[in-house]
Amino acid sequence: MATATTPIGQDQPTKAVPPPVVFDLSQPPVIEGFTPLPRAKEETFKDKFIRKTKENPFVPIGCLGTAGALIYGLSAFRRGKTRQSQLLMRARIFAQGFTVVAIIVGVAATALKPKQ
After folding, report:
1. Side-chain half-sphere exposure of 78, counting CA atoms within 13 A
2. How many angstroms separate the CA atoms of 110 and 102, rounded?
3. 3-class SS at 107?
């Protein structure tokens, strides 16, 4: 029943503990052989809306036409003008179709546009 003991006064070699890794989330990670692209400026809702409207102005026009026909048709229905209400609901469907076609044409034009 012999136990291994170390003599008093002799310290065992200690392992060097590496410092904890701290991640800086405000900076991109450093990867050897890779250079990241600079980050684009954050775009606000207003800036994005204006840019998208300039790219395809028919979508907001169609949305406004749809909303206008719906509101005017509902008010005609409320006043009891059923014929006018029916015509305005048909106009709303036409405006919705116009909007969908404008979206599809805009997506196709964006897809076919050459990359810069």
Report:
1. 6
2. 12
3. helix
User: For every residue of 27-80, which 3-state class applies, written as one string?
Assistant: CCCCCCCCCCCCCCCCCCHHHHHHHHHHHCCHHHHHHHHHHHHHHHHHHHHHHC
CA distances to 26, 58, 111 from 54, in Å: 33, 9, 16
Burial (CB count <10 Å: 0-12, 13-18, 19+), residue 94: middle
Cα→Cα distances 40→37, 49, 59, 115, Å: 9, 17, 26, 17
Q: What average pLDDT does the structure give for the chain?
A: 84
pLDDT attached to residue 66: 96
Q: What is the pTM of this model?
A: 0.59
Closest alpha carbon to 71 in 53, 95, 49:
95
One-letter amino acid identity for 110? Answer: T
Q: Which residue has the tokens 């800086």?
A: 24
Q: Over 60: is that where the pLDDT of 110 sits?
A: yes
CB atoms within 10 A of CB 56: 17
The two structure tokens encoding residue 91: 């106009």
